Each structure stands twice: as C-alpha cells, then as structure tokens.
C-alpha cells in the first residue's frame, strides 16, 4: 500500500510539473499578423530629440487598435550591439494593409532572421 501511495504521489507531481511547463507563456511568442482593409493615415510630424548614447530612436507610427488606426509616439529603445533596428511599417499587399512590427535584424539585410534562409551571413553588406 505504501508503494502505491508513493507511486501515485510521484505520478501526480510529474503530471503537475509537465502541465505547468506547457501552460506558461513566454515573451518570445510570435505576434499575430495584423491585416486590414483601411490604409493608415499619413505619418505625423514629430520632433526627434537629440541622440542618446546606447539608444536607438524608434519613430512614431500607427498601430491597429479596436478597429481603428492609433498613433504611437516615437521613443528611445535600448540599442542591441550587432543588430540594426527596423522601424514598424505598413505595407499594401493585394488591396490589404499588413502591419510589420519593429524588430531587430542581425545581418542588416532587412529580412527577419526567422524568415531568412541564411541568417547572420557575414558576407552580406
């Protein structure tokens, strides 16, 4: 009987630990694509403050919130050595507008590394 109770306790603990590991969200999860029919308004004019050491300026842009375009003001983002910052952008594709979030690109080719067949290629300019 004691062996059965110990086996049951070990099994329950292992199930709980597996369930917890699977359900914990991570911050690196991919964001869903935003595709809308309405083009964004023209970008607003904004004052860019003087450069800050160790930071990159992320320009203001429109994001899609609750069925409409909402302006997000520019801000400073901590620089990542070896990476180039790509600002968020809207692109028209087949009559629809697709939003691409701001991202960091390691090999400076403009292609996110997850889509790049040869990421971090040192021979690219």
Automatic annotation (TrEMBL):
Signal sequence range: 1-30
Record's keyword terms, sorted: Signal
Region (Disordered): 101-125
Protein name: YXWGXW repeat-containing protein
